[in-house]
Amino acid sequence: MEKFNTSFNGYKKEEVNKFIDDVIKQVESMINNMKSKDLEIEKLKTELEHYKNLETTFNRALLIAEDAGQQIRNSARSESIQLIEDAKRNADRIVNNALIQADTARNEAERLRRNIITFKRRLRDILETQMDLVNDIDRLDIE
Asked: Would the pTM count as exceeding 0.85?
């Protein structure tokens, strides 16, 4: 607290005026400082609101991305299950076709084996008949 010197009519007018001027300057400085702080507070509030909006937007985007990711995973799982089932069906079909072809080849081989045996028997019979004819020719020439 400031103390003033006294004069004939009370306090010295220059000292009081200087003190009041100093107080006015301090108050004006405080008011300007407060205005500056108010402007900064408003600016920060605006930025905070902007960042809150960004946060909300990012949260929504994140939720949408998570949902999309989950849908993609579910779709991929579903598709892989379908592909596996298709592959199993195709494998079963291929195995069945191979078994049928193997059975057909086995039957064909058996038929060919029987034909060869029959052919050999007939050829033997023909040869024996021919040999009998040759033997008969030898008997005819000799007599």
From this structure: no
